[in-house]
Design goal:
The protein is α/β, with parallel strands linked by helices. The protein has 14 helices and 15 strands.
Length: about 375
């Protein structure tokens, strides 16, 4: 029967009626294989391939699971283990899950959904199979012997493909959120601390034109985790401005995104001095310049009294964190009376509200110089 079935599948493939998923086959069957290096991220875990994710489920040890999960397909397959088959228990981030339970099915479906949304190569390959039946003739059919059966795989992929087409026919879309970089995702001042005083003096009044500056900056507290939470519920894009006279800033910003958030924002980045030209539901930005105040959707003013940190932004957008609050930023947290500011010596000072209001109309360079003057003149509190 198996031999007859394989011949039948080959016949359908030859007629262009079906795709038999296999890593050594032609496109798109090879890209749809779990062994293909279609990276994605799930629940804060980096998955180097779907094979890496599936093989990691067999590991109770969290560190071992994280290691295997990050592997490419063929390397991950070498780490296979049959120990789970005895009690049919698999693991995800320290939680035991019955392989035959609906909970397990939901977890695997979430993983494929994440890969579909985050990995353009996989998504394109899957959508190219419209109108074709999916098979994985080399797959195991017994769910008690394999982490994923042929039927489970092909059912998940078919539903992903068909549901995506339904979305184009009027299914409600995710709301679109644009996110600024400087002092929203990126801590601007963290880059300046790595610049010599001589260079700062040379570029006095135009610090954002220092070559390579943007590549030195660190993420704002809580920003990375916040993006992974937002991605689950919204259609995310970066919407940033780069100094016109600093060409390296443009490439540095792309490099920064690739380093810290490529799984979220891969090819989802807009650099412009006219943010009002972009259409979306929300724009998270710390300043109203470059078209932000004219944005057609809602402007969420990051660093304001209403939205002092990423916790407040997520709460406003209806996202509840699982008993864990994101760290609060220290460089631009505004209360009703003061702003907390990190000094070069590693300490912190607070500015008065009237000075904070004055700084809102300044450029980043002007703010930095003004803060330095305030500290020099003793106009702050410890």
């Amino acid at each position: 029967m198996d031999k007859f079935r394989r011949l039948y599948i080959k016949w359908l493939v030859w007629r262009g009626k079906a795709i038999d998923i296999w890593s050594k086959s032609d496109y798109p069957a090879d890209v749809l294989s779990n062994l293909c290096s279609n990276g994605f991220r799930l629940d804060g875990m980096v998955c180097g391939s779907m094979e890496g994710f599936l093989q990691s489920l067999k590991q109770k040890d969290k560190d071992k699971q994280r290691q295997i999960c990050s592997m490419k397909g063929k390397n991950a397959k070498k780490m296979t283990s049959a120990g789970w088959q005895t009690d049919q228990i698999v693991w995800w981030k320290g939680v035991a899950i019955d392989r035959q339970s609906e909970e397990y099915g939901k977890l695997v479906r979430r993983a494929y959904q994440a890969m579909f949304e985050q990995n353009e190569r996989f998504r394109t390959a899957l959508m190219s199979t419209r109108g074709q039946k999916l098979f994985h003739s080399r797959g195991e059919s017994n769910p008690f012997k394999t982490i994923l059966t042929e039927n489970e795989l092909c059912t998940i992929l078919t539903k992903l493909r068909d549901n995506y087409d339904k979305r184009d026919k009027g299914v409600e879309r995710k709301k679109r959120v644009f996110v600024d970089m400087d002092n929203v995702l990126v801590d601007f001042e963290s880059g300046l601390t790595q610049i010599s005083e001589a260079v700062k003096k040379e570029y006095e009044g135009r610090l954002d034109e220092i070559p390579g500056l943007f590549g030195l900056m660190k993420p704002m507290p809580g920003a990375i985790d916040a993006m992974h939470e937002l991605q689950k519920h919204y259609d995310l894009f970066i919407l940033s401005t780069a100094p016109w006279k600093n060409p390296s800033a443009w490439s540095d910003k792309v490099t920064w995104v690739t380093k810290y958030l490529d799984d979220v924002f891969h090819k989802r980045m807009v650099i412009t001095h006219r943010k009002d030209l972009c259409q979306g539901d929300y724009l998270i930005d710390d300043r109203g310049k470059n078209g932000t105040s004219e944005f057609s959707g809602e402007w969420i003013e990051f660093g304001s009294e209403k939205f002092p940190d990423w916790n407040s932004v997520l709460a406003y957008l209806g996202i509840e964190l699982d008993n864990t609050a994101l760290p609060k930023p220290h460089s631009n947290v505004v209360s009703s009376e003061e702003e907390i500011f990190e000094t070069g010596g590693g300490g912190y000072v607070s500015f008065y509200q009237e000075d904070i209001e004055r700084m809102k109309s300044m450029t980043v360079d002007e703010q930095i110089e003004y803060k330095s003057e305030l500290i020099k003149n003793g106009r702050y509190t410890e």
